[in-house]
Amino acid sequence: MVTAVDGRGTVSGSLTNTAGEGYRGVDIAFYENGERTGTARTNGDGVYAEVLPAGGYEVVPEDDQFAPTSTDVTVQNDETTVPNIELRPPSLPGADSPPTQAAAFPDDGLYENVTGDGSFDILDVQALFDNLGAAPVQNGAWAYNFSGLDPERVSIFDVQALFNRLQSAD
Asked: Any idea what the Cα angle at residue 28 is, between residues 117 and 148, rounded to 5°?
């Protein structure tokens, strides 16, 4: 349990995907005026907590399997601030935007719009196939487990399952 002390407050939140699934073992950095002032690690449910001096902080998950993101918080004396952060996979090589979920499959935690262009189409299937061995795909395997076989590794079976999703979305 994290408890506040005089002149300090608690930052306690969770890291989840759009399906609400938490991520364990992710380091969370706290920056005040650009200087790193603390670090926490998420537990098995994706929850983290850190006691910090009162003030303004940038909360940054630090893990290459996610698109860069941060949120600003104000820590108040003897209070708990709860910044929950929703994580997304990183952009694929050559893509301008990170992947998004397709409207046909909301809240399943998977990212069918692989190219991040806002449209789920055959180009997303091709992009996943073309980037099958790329670090952003393999490091973010949780986002592309369309086959349901192996959440730790993206394979040709996930590409096939994504193609099947595209067919069923029409």
From this structure: 50
Q: Per-residue confidence at 2, pLDDT binned at 50, 70, 90?
A: very low
139 and 82 inside one domain = no
Evaluate whether residue 48 is within a structural domain.
yes
Question: Distance between CA atoms of 114 and 132, rounded to whole angstroms?
Answer: 11
pTM for the complete prediction?
0.72
- Residue (of 18, 19, 38) closest to 28 by Cα position: 38
Residue 35's domain is classified under what CATH number?
2.60.40.10
Tokens for 134, please give them.
Answer: 């790329």
Alpha carbon distance 47, 56 (integer Å): 20
The whole-angstrom separation of Cα 111 and Cα 154 is: 13
Same domain, 20 and 95: no
Residues 101, 144 contacting (CB under 8 angstroms): no
